[in-house]
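Loading example: each entry is read as two labelled lines plus one structure line.
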Amino acid sequence: MIALMGNFLLGLAALAAFYAALAALIGQTKASPTWKKSTDNAMLAYTLLLGAGVLFLGLALLFNQFELQYVHDHSSLALPLYLKLSAIWAGQEGSLLFWSFMQALFSLLAVNANRKKNADSVYIAAAILSLLTAFFAGVTFLVQNPFASLSPVPADGLGLNPLLRHPGMAFHPPALYLGYVGLAVPFAFGLTGLISGKVKEWSQPIHRWTLFSWFGLGIGLLLGMRWAYDVLGWGGYWGWDAVENAALMPWLVSSALIHTDYLREKTENTFNKTYLLAALAYQLVLFGTYATRSGQIQSVHAYTQSSIGPVLLGAQLLLLAVSAGIFFKFRQKSTAASDAPMSLRAIVSRLTTLVLLTLTFSIFLGTILPNLTQVISGQATGVSTAWFDRVSGPQFALLVLLMGLCPLAAMALRQFKRWQLILAGLAGGLLLGVFFSLLLGEFLPLAFMVFSLIGFSITAELFKFAGRQRQTARFNTLRLSSWMIHTGLILLALGVFASKAYEFSDFQSMQLNESVTSGGYQLEYRGIAQEMRADYLETKAELLLSQNGRTLALLSPYLNQYDDGQQTLTVPAVRSSLADDVYVVLSGWSDNGEQATFQIYINPLINFLWFGGVLLLAGGYLALAPLNAKGVGRWLYWIGATLFIGLAVWMMWGSAHGATAPDSNDLQIGSAAPQFETLTDLNGQPLLVDFASSPVTVVNFWAPWCPSCREELPDLQAIWEKYEAQGLALVGITYDTDQAAVQASVDSYGLTYPIVLDPDAALSMQYEVTGVPETYIVDRSGRITFIAIGAASYDVIEAAILESLIQTEASIKGGS
Amino acid sequence: MKNRITYILVAAAIVIAVVFLILTATAQESQFFITVGELGALSAEEQRQPLVVSGAVDGASIVYDETIPQITFTIVDIPSDLKVIEQRGGLAVVLEEAVQDPQAQRLQVVYSGVKPDLLKGSAQAILKGQLGQDGRFYSDDLLLKCPSRYAEDIPEQVED
């Protein structure tokens, strides 16, 4: 019944779309209002039918209708609600249906918006867009039908792969489809413009739709990267896989398409270029669907291979031939424009287009090389991710440079002289180069150059921002958005480069309560906890992350085992700061957690990538602002903006990512050390420790059974012998109740400094001691100046004592 | 006119530089994509190059030492031609049959790294690495495609 209804909706929609294409063609050539009206009706009909189809599939998923093969394959009773809905696009068939619906909706919207403005040619566009809808709906119906039924009806479905159970994965595909499907519109409008000769009229709608698609692809890419970073657990976010590349390439080409538009005002002759770029972008979209869905391109993302490959490839080649044929017949013949002088700005803009295209070409080549060499030589030869890094890196750097040169070339900056800008840019570059090299603690010549380049471009963009906003009194959204997009991209480049050039990864096998130092951080392993969840076993580890004695976060990376351990899901814990991310993966454990192994990645400046990405998308959203909208539309837009940015920020940093803040009352360097009441030493004598009476007090927590404590004791004794005469106070505190064992240690190490018993661990709790040994150094004012979790050597303690003295002296001098 | 010449010169320089980049990178960073069966057919010199080998994972052979971390397992030859795979009933069937087949060619793999989420029996493994003197394949880059209980194929990337 469900299957029948679904098929009915889908089949009818495909027919309606095909009819709409024909009716539009007749309406256009005969200039017949009746046929045009009929086209409008058919377009509305197929959009509603496909909408109903998607709704129907959604309901079938929601109500667990496992008689549909698709529902059985991609959902299950136990799946949470939002994931049941996202299963609409989780599989090949459902996603094609969804694609068809979007294609229908965008066709309807695009044609409606131009019905009045471009009344004499809009039905050409209606015919092309309806034909595309007919194709996708037809393929869904005939080749990849989501409404195929199963008999007998299974009791439960297979469920959604654990790796896909993530909010990022719920929104990543539809966002990408906004871009993929949206790019059909500039292509169709480009064809319409060429055929009708109304190039001026169609340029503006092409620009808007390109911007929209570019924005959608951008969200999809960023969400996909974040998902990979949060879920896949290899510390990175981009693997140069064919399917990732398939989304990046149309984004690059649509970036170029957006830029050609700026030249349009100056010379009449750019519509050819606009059309070619729009056609290329859409060809790349089709290539992307082919790569994802045919199984022919080597990719880890691809759906299981299916019979759809030849259909898609055939359609793509046909479309390529048709769009080339139409171009040669209808292209804009060149005018005298080529003799006009070329402005500096035009050079920069054209070079940007060129680099975007060479970059796209490089990525395309790398992606299809295995197939290409297979055909040519019979031996498939592919390239590594290092190839992509090497080939694309310099080209991305060139784009950053061009973004910096753009404000220099622009005529709008009359209030700054060009040499002032160049000087400021160079100074900014030098400053950032030095700053980041110092921050990251290692001078790499190449990195210094890249940081300087980024600094140069950021400075130039800042001047552009200042100059332009001053120029016009009114708040100018378009200029602000352009600034946000470019600055966002530069910051993103900074994050990508620094996290790559300075990446650090480490593997640590740790005993319970052991502390290790890795990449400038200390990690203390606190054990694992296991819990049985709905359909998996969750194993969560706890690690205390600290740096220079300051506790930063409690990290809980976890590992879920599904299907009796057949499939696992590794979720890293990420502690983010402006300087870097500490990214920890639990890779295994033994003896009930007595020992566990962790993969640790330090990704420097990576948050510039996410921040730049959000800024870039916010700029894109701003560029899409409905300029003429009033009242409700305007409000909706701004509410949408707030929600969107809020969601993006939450995705990046709001959701926990397995890192929780340590208790804010935790002792750290600078906090006041808890004062001791009167203490009792081993002989039962009272001992007074008053911080004010000694320039430096060292407090050491230890236990006789602890190996690293025993290692430390001789060093402490040596410190005591050297500094006692100079007024140093040193006290060893042990919460061990076995006084004989304590006494034995004191005797065998010959300890002469005061040792205090803490039988009910009251003192240790005041100092939040989580394990022994821990050492605190306190200055005369009672302020903690040093904390060591784990054993500290003679040299470390001595240095800390001297440092504490210097600080105290400095503050006394400063105070006087 | 002067600007136009500048533009053409710079553009030409960029195009030449990109072509140069692609050529040099390809010379150094390209690898043969082969199956386990094709490995034996390569010349001794070709075998020493970095290679990308794909095959079906034999689940029973997986040994994971998490303290190093290192995994050793065996991969079994499967055909690379998609048409052949489809004729035999799809990738899932081909992978399953390959693992069961005692006659199929096998290759021992030593992978350095944490055990990936999708590494299990009858997964398709795509390994980048080099053939060692001992006849085992040493890899630190592993891609996995799984005809799992779940219908979707999942991106799983492991980088060294």
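The mean pLDDT of chain A is 85.
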